[in-house]
Structure formats: C-alpha cells, structure tokens
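re: ur question from yesterday

yeah so i grabbed the chain u mentioned. its 196 aa long if i counted rite. heres the sequnce exactly as i have it in my notes:
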Amino acid sequence: MTYTLENPLQSKHDNCLYAPEMSRVFSVKTLKEHPAEFHIEATDIERAALATRFHVSAIHSLKGSFKIYRKNGLIKVKGSLEAQLDQTCVVTLNSFKVAIVDDFNLVFDPSTTWDDFCLDETFFSDGPEPIINNQLDIGELLAQQLSLGINPYPRSPGANLAEAIKGINVSNVKVITEATQANSPFAVLKELGESA
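ran it thru and got these structure tokens back, copy pasting raw so excuse formatting
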C-alpha cells in the first residue's frame, strides 16, 4: 500500500500560527495494517532555516527514514537520520564539519486531544507523546531528533584551550572587568548598603 505525505503543515490554535521549517505531514487515519515507510530530505531553504533555528553555521545535508505502524492502539515510529553540518568551535572559534548519524524510536497516542496536550500533567513523562488532529509531522520529528544530536558546546578535533588563550593580556581583561563591575547596578546597591 502506498501512503502519501502533505507539505507544509500550519497548525492553528488560539490564534497562534506555527509553521515548522521542515514539514512532511502524515495522517495516521490512513494507516492500515501495513506499515508506512518514508524517506525524506531537507531542501536548501529548509536546511538554511534549521541552521538558524539550531544556531549552527550551516547544515549541508539532512536525510531521514521512517517506519510508522500501529501496535496496541498506539502509533510507533522507527527512524534514522543522517546529517552533515558546520559548527563553530567554542575554543578556537573556527568552523569545523560535524557528521550526525542516529536511530530513534518514538511512541504516540492518537487518542490525545488538544486539551490533553495542554492540561495533562504527565505530558512530560516517559509515556506516549500526543498526536494532535491525527497529524504526525515527520519533518518536524526529524528536526527535533537532529537538535538532540547537536552538541551545544562543540569543540573541533584537537582544540586546546591552553593554546587558544595564549597571548591574551590578562591585565586588560581585569581592567575591563573592574570597570564593568563599577558601572553595574550592584555597585550602586553596595554603596547604599555601606552608607546605611
């Protein structure tokens, strides 16, 4: 059986409009006894938008594979992703290439309503995630899984902090720090406390 994806998704609720940078929507209503399988790839525009969202220099490629099936009333997703991107080293401030390869398994509950999504105190537990309006956006799922694989404090191979700080004039840093502290609101509070 052949399943189809819709693109893009705009979810509207309470006058809020959210359009994911990469959207590939699958309606779980159409899911029968046979699993749905998809292979998706981000476009140039989507990769640029995701690079901005995730604060990386560039995303050169982003591909994902999905197998979606029903089991015990739940929607299960087996997926994998491959990405090539550039990040800025926190030590050297130079850009370097990063490869991310990951497999993931997700579980969703199609019976969840919008009120359940907003009000259920157990939403952030390890239980099934909600599906709103029977729509599963595997493009956004791929983006979320990519975000989990991105190191927020990346270091390029061989980056050495001791080498990077060589040549920094520590006395200048101290002067700047003291000047900043003197002009801070806390300095005024300190003076008030001393005069009391």
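noticed a couple things. Residues 170-182 form the longest helix (13 residues). also Helices lie at 44-53, 114-119, 138-149, 161-164, 170-182, 185-195.
anyway ttyl
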